[in-house]
Amino acid sequence: MRLITRTKGIGLIKPPVPFALCPEPYSLNAHKAVMDLGGDFSGMKQLLLTCSAIIMLFITTGFALGNEERGGYVGTETCLECHEEQYESYLKNYHAIEGDPRTPAAKQMCESCHGPGEIHAEEEDVELILAMGRDSDVPAVKKNEACLECHTKGKLTLWHGSTHEDRILSCSNCHSFHKGYQKSLSKPSEIEVCVECHQPIRSQLFRRSRHPLREKKIKCGDCHNPHGTIADKLVDAQYVNLKCLECHAEVRGPFLWEHPPTVENCLTCHTPHGSTHVALLNGKTPYLCQRCHSNQGHAGELYARGASQANQSVYRALNNKAFYRACLNCHTSVHGSNHSSGKTLLR
Length: 347
Ligand code: HEC
Ligand code: HEC
Ligand code: HEC
Ligand code: HEC
Ligand code: HEC
Ligand code: HEC
Ligand code: HEC
Ligand code: HEC
Ligand code: HEC
Ligand code: HEC
What we know:
- The protein is an all-alpha fold.
- It folds into three domains: 76-128, no CATH class; 137-253, no CATH class; 254-337, no CATH class.
- It contains 17 helices and four strands.
- The chain has helices at 30-35, 45-69, 76-82, 84-91, 110-114, 118-123, 140-148, 163-166, 171-174, 190-195, 199-204, 220-223, 240-247, 260-264, 287-290, 297-300, 313-318, and strands spanning 209-210, 257-258, 274-275, 336-337.
- The strands form two sheets. A two-stranded antiparallel sheet has the order 1-3. It has a two-stranded antiparallel sheet with strand order 2-4.
- It starts with 29 loop residues before the first helix and ends in a 10-residue tail after the last strand.
- Residues 144, 147-148, 151, 154-156, 159, 164, 169, 171, 173-175, 183, 190, 193, 221, 226-227 line the site of one heme C.
- One heme C is lined by residues 76, 79, 83, 86-87, 90, 95, 104, 109-110, 112-114, 132-133, 172, 176-178.
């Protein structure tokens, strides 16, 4: 819990209702708020709704006042006087290409993103400029607005309503314009950007079976669009199988003898990031197969019947369905088979 104390500029005007009433997520510190959101929301809905209403009111009035106080555009020359470092780094960025009429460089330059800075340049007051850094107290919505003025299409089409917008992330949680990294990211590589918040995923990347993300053969963005998707979990496809089959065409089929769960959802047996079992499986054979295949009869009898006699020990070992690759010892074509006698996925 904390109080918003800003009183002028583009900050919020001091509210008569203490923000301490609002739960932490609305402390307006996007980065921190976001990390606090794992908790239990039950029973808080009403409070949240009230708080958002109050906040929206103050955001609107606060900023309406702020804009008047900020004066007009002064141009990059002026900014350069005090912010040479940011100017230099900005020049390395696509947004600095004047030849492209759509970029900020062809418009108000620095002030396309940071807003008019006339009075800021005179008073050198941080509160009088749109500070977009992750530490700034400006609400994420307000920071994002500056970007969304130009970025509404392509990967950004589904930003509104996406999980990351929902969880009050701002563009600058992942992007920076004064560091010179690819795609204007805030860290040298995409993985580093993502695992800063997604530590459990990071740990999965160290398991024995995993997608080769650490080797930089693929990246989070090959499967996810962090800006929003139609599918669940920000998976960048209509549904998950289509995403997997983009790279694993050999599993696509159509098969003469299909194995229904493969057509249905790869994640019935696989986990995407990392697994302690082979081949990214989310369970160990034979138990994985026995989740669906009857615990009686062939699939359920893990040891051969009547194998007590010594001369049957060889047979028993061969027929041991819990041994080595278990069911996969025999059922090798587990995704489906195109062999004329592959009905039981043996070949
Ligand atoms: C006369 C000097 C001066 C001029 C001119 C100036 N600024 Fe600043 N600016 C400052 C100072 C001082 C700060 C506060 C720095 C701090 O607190 O670390 C600041 C802070 C900022 C910040 C916020 C940094 C943060 O902490 O997030 C931004 C953004 C910014 N200026 C952009 C601009 C832009 C854009 C222009 C041109 C329109 C401009 N400035 C012109 C002196 C100036
Ligand atoms: C495309 C939008 C955009 C443009 C154009 C832009 N900035 Fe920024 N600026 C940002 C964002 C986002 C941040 C916060 C994240 C970061 O560190 O890059 C930022 C941060 C800053 C900061 C705070 C720096 C810090 O290290 O905390 C200053 C000062 C600043 N910008 C000045 C400028 C100046 C001067 C220009 C023009 C030469 C400029 N910006 C152009 C988006 C922009
Ligand atoms: C005045 C318009 C404008 C504004 C404001 C703007 N951008 Fe852009 N941005 C562009 C254009 C134009 C491109 C080039 C797009 C292309 O090639 O399709 C671009 C490219 C990008 C790229 C990818 C290219 C790269 O390597 O950097 C990112 C990421 C990006 N913008 C993020 C942002 C964010 C975040 C903000 C807000 C802080 C922002 N932009 C503000 C116009 C803008
Ligand atoms: C959770 C992290 C994250 C957030 C939040 C985020 N981005 Fe991105 N953005 C990325 C990553 C990662 C890429 C690079 C994707 C790639 O290489 O395919 C990217 C790429 C882009 C691109 C280039 C798209 C292209 O077609 O190459 C633009 C433009 C962009 N972001 C704008 C924005 C804007 C505007 C916002 C805020 C509304 C935003 N991003 C918020 C992570 C993020
Ligand atoms: C500033 C922190 C932050 C960063 C950086 C970040 N995320 Fe997230 N992400 C979140 C939060 C918070 C959630 C919601 C978690 C929840 O609901 O449990 C989330 C959820 C997700 C989800 C699940 C979506 C859903 O609908 O359940 C995916 C996938 C995801 N992020 C991918 C990424 C990728 C890829 C990147 C890097 C480009 C990234 N995130 C960077 C904070 C972050
Ligand atoms: C091979 C594709 C693929 C790659 C690469 C990938 N993901 Fe995922 N991710 C998925 C799929 C598919 C899901 C949905 C899982 C589900 O529905 O249970 C998912 C789910 C998630 C979730 C939601 C939480 C969960 O475990 O269900 C987060 C967060 C996430 N991914 C983050 C990341 C990050 C961060 C990276 C990069 C380090 C990354 N992913 C790389 C495919 C991928
Ligand atoms: C962007 C391409 C790409 C996408 C999308 C993708 N994969 Fe992969 N996958 C790979 C690569 C590369 C490897 C490593 C292959 C190698 O090392 O020979 C791999 C390996 C695997 C492996 C074998 C792992 C092992 O330890 O042997 C499985 C299983 C797998 N992927 C399942 C999936 C599933 C399920 C999905 C969908 C959620 C998916 N993949 C999406 C590229 C991708
Ligand atoms: C019924 C469970 C099941 C389903 C559903 C399933 N798989 Fe598999 N998959 C397996 C098993 C078991 C293995 C290990 C095979 C082996 O070790 O011979 C495997 C191995 C793999 C491999 C590693 C390469 C190989 O052949 O060794 C890839 C890639 C793969 N699966 C992709 C997929 C994709 C993509 C989907 C969804 C279209 C999918 N799987 C659905 C059980 C399944
Ligand atoms: C999500 C449930 C599910 C899982 C897990 C599963 N299967 Fe299946 N399997 C099915 C269904 C459904 C059929 C089709 C049954 C039918 O056509 O009567 C099937 C068919 C088969 C068949 C052909 C049976 C026949 O009568 O033609 C074999 C062999 C088989 N599965 C082996 C495996 C093996 C080995 C595994 C573990 C790697 C496994 N299954 C995991 C659901 C599953
Ligand atoms: C020693 C080799 C072998 C092992 C190990 C094995 N199977 Fe089979 N399985 C077969 C053969 C051979 C058939 C075909 C029998 C027939 O056509 O009458 C078969 C048929 C099946 C069938 C279809 C007929 C039926 O009885 O329902 C299913 C389902 C099946 N196996 C599942 C499994 C599962 C699950 C495992 C692991 C617990 C497993 N099998 C382990 C050899 C094996």
